[in-house]
Amino acid sequence: MVKKVSNKTGFKEDATLLNRRLEQVDQKLTVADLTDVTDIPGSFRKFTNFSNDRDLTCRFMLATMNEGALILSPDGKIAYCNRSFAELIQSSADQLFGAIFIQYIHREERARFGELLRQAKNTRCRGEFNLHTTVENTIIVYLSINIITFGSELHYLIFAADVTECRRAEEALRKSEEQFRTMFETSLSMMILLEPESGKIYRANAAACSIFGLTPREIAGKKITELSSLSQEDVFPDIQTQDHNLKKYFTFKHRQPTGEIGFFEAYGNSFTLGNQNLYFSIIHNVTDRKYMEAVVDQLLIELGDRVKELDTLYALTALSDKPDAQLEEVVQQVIDFLPVAWLEHNEFCARLQLNSIHYSTGNFKKTDYLKEFPIYSGNQRIGNLELYYLGKNYDFWANRSFEGERNLLQVIIRRLGQIVGRLQAEKALQKREERYRAVVENQGEGTCYADGNENIEFANPAAEKIFGVGPGELLGRNLSEFMLEEQFVLVIQQTLSRRRGEKSSYEVEITRLDGEKRNLLITANPVFDDQGTYNGAFGIFRDITGRKQVEGYFKRGDV
């Protein structure tokens, strides 16, 4: 509470007016949550005794300002601080009164702070310091140190502004600029900064300088149109728009240090740096691509003339994939397709010799102009192809205009060898399968294949007879349907051995669907796929019920 002025002088009206003003100030101080003078230690009370309105105004300004403010005694203790500084340190004014201020300054910066205090006696001093808060955080503050006098003692009035976020933003900006500068200078892509009005190069990275054969210092200030030894019309035909601004995309040619003409594409955009307008461009060397595009264009022209030839290949593929295709039929159709591979197909005929059998086109006729090609299936020669020219007398095989036809013919020959080889292999495999199936189906012992879950996927007639079922009735059934639980457990144990790649023979008892029990001797072999995954087991089993009965007679002495 601010003390009221008594009316000892007799000027009642002046005293009343002054007391009213002090009450208003007292209310403002209360709103600002200032410490009451009665709560201030005696050594600090001099900072709250107001001798006049000016002192009161200064006190109010210090207490309510947004920046931190504090007063240090000659021995460096905090004699006063406002709320803003207390919040800066994340403490309260009561806790900071009497504390040694230098303890909040980073240890490595304390000597510099002490030097500023000494200099402040002669002039106002400023500096940035790292302060430790009471919650072990570090903030960056800008301190302004002034000298004030209370009686005969010099004190330090310090204003503190938190610049932590500002400095962090500046550091982030510096790192970002350094990062982008490094990216610019070390990038393998060519990058150039231009002045869009004059076209002069403001800056270029090492990749761009290497293309033009100049150093960064030599290239700076040159116009981009001056960098090529070619004429400007050949180099930059469309670099500027109608309003003389640089385009966002343009192409140009340049004679590289190697002497070769290079093709380049530039992508860019304008931006403002400070008060300067600049144009940033990334340049790509597309020389290889341009040459490849020329090659592709030529190939497209040639491929356009070969559409009919490609139809031939599709037809060959359809023939080879036809279900139940016969070798003789496929080969004859392939021979009929061969002349279509040439634009002048009526001037050619063909004959194929395959395993002493001849296949020929409908217009076949021998002439003096013959070209022969061996046909291979893998590394084995399986036949010979003869091509006869029926037209004019010239070596068509050496004629350049038939390059595409010759390549297509080679493809057809290779494809023909693959088709013939595959059909022959399929035919041989079919015969072997028929022989093996006849052996399996006519043997007296049961044969079946069961998958990893003991489901039967194949069974011969002998197996169906042993299990007492009709033809095909074993397929899809599980072995557990024909066994008691303890017998099926034995089968599961044997399957675990199969999964480990083991072969074995074991006995098991089955119960047929008619209730009759049978004893079987099973010899099982595991089956794995190409990746080594267990697929099932192939088993051969013999009905040993009679033998088991005889063994039982011997054991009982009933022989």
Q: How far do the termini sit from each other?
A: 130 Å
CATH topology of the largest domain: Beta-Lactamase
Low-confidence stretches: 1-12, 28-51
Shape annotation: flat
Q: How many domains in all?
A: 4
CATH uppermost class of the largest domain: Alpha Beta
| Major β-sheet profile | 5 strands, antiparallel
Number of helical segments with 4 or more residues: 16
Which strands sit side by side, in order, in the main sheet? 2-1-5-4-3
Structural class: alpha+beta
Estimated helix fraction:
25-40%
Q: Please tell me the CATH architecture of the largest domain by its name.
A: 2-Layer Sandwich
Beta-strand residue percentage: 25-35%
Our Rg estimate from Cα atoms comes to 51 Å
Number of strands: 19
What is the average per-residue confidence, as pLDDT, rounded to a whole number? 78
The CATH superfamily name of the largest domain is PAS domain
Any descriptors?
16 helices; flat; 5-stranded antiparallel β-sheet; Beta-Lactamase; 4 domains; alpha+beta; disordered N terminus
